[in-house]
From TrEMBL:
Organism for this UniProt entry: Tetraselmis sp. GSL018
Highest taxon of the lineage: Eukaryota
Amine oxidase domain ranges (all copies): 51-203
SUPFAM superfamilies the record matches: FAD/NAD(P)-binding domain
Name of the protein: Phytoene dehydrogenase
MF terms (GO), sorted A to Z: oxidoreductase activity
Amino acid sequence: GRSYLRFLAEARAALDLGTKNFIERDFDGLGDFLDLALIPLLRSVSVGELLGRHASRMAKRFRDPRLQAMFTFQDLYVGLSPYEAPGVFSLLAATELTDGVWYPEGGFGKIRDGLEEAAKKNGVRVLRGTEVVSISVDADRVAGVTVSGGEYLEADAVVCNNDVANSYGLLSSTYGSEQAADVSALKYSAGVIAFNWCVNKRFTELLHHNIFLSGEYRNSWNLARSPSELVENPNFYVHVRIQQLCPNRGQTPLWFYFPLRIRRIVE
């Protein structure tokens, strides 16, 4: 109990320090990091531990490997393994456990629906189920997009909510092709498989947040070269939704979150 409270206090202090002096502050150049006013602040936290491996930092605070695993599982959120991620990511657990996690009533789909409704009220035409097949480039700027069906939409700006490799691949320029090839050759971070299920059963033994750890915790973070190399019993997270989002009363809405680390195979 005391180890947990000490860890939480340390992480919270580092989070408050980092938020005020780094996250909420603009750094326009290397010189901004050399501010002498930051030296006393850096002395109040263990910089070496924050920059070292997250798994090593937790091993110094908890003897039980299950507790170490539980407080490093959040590294998955940023696509990293706790054996690769820096110790600063312990701040993720701090904000979850002290601030809590907030979400909109009805789920995040409500935000999407609200944005769509507001856009339509302001004269925006929303195209659903329409794939962007190409992003046009004119000289050194993006000029528009071509969608499935062949329609070309001219635009002053294009916001692409796609992964980096595919975004470069959509650019109609030599630069885009070259960047897509370079990015595809990089080592990809962790991914996940997420399932949203409505189950015809009540699970009174499950809490709001549940982390299931296998006996192969460390191996489950290894980068697999094929699906056959994935561990048979992975770690996974289960979220029991508070709101009734299922079509039938008596059903339990469950969200399963499986970490997946597999090398991208380029044909």
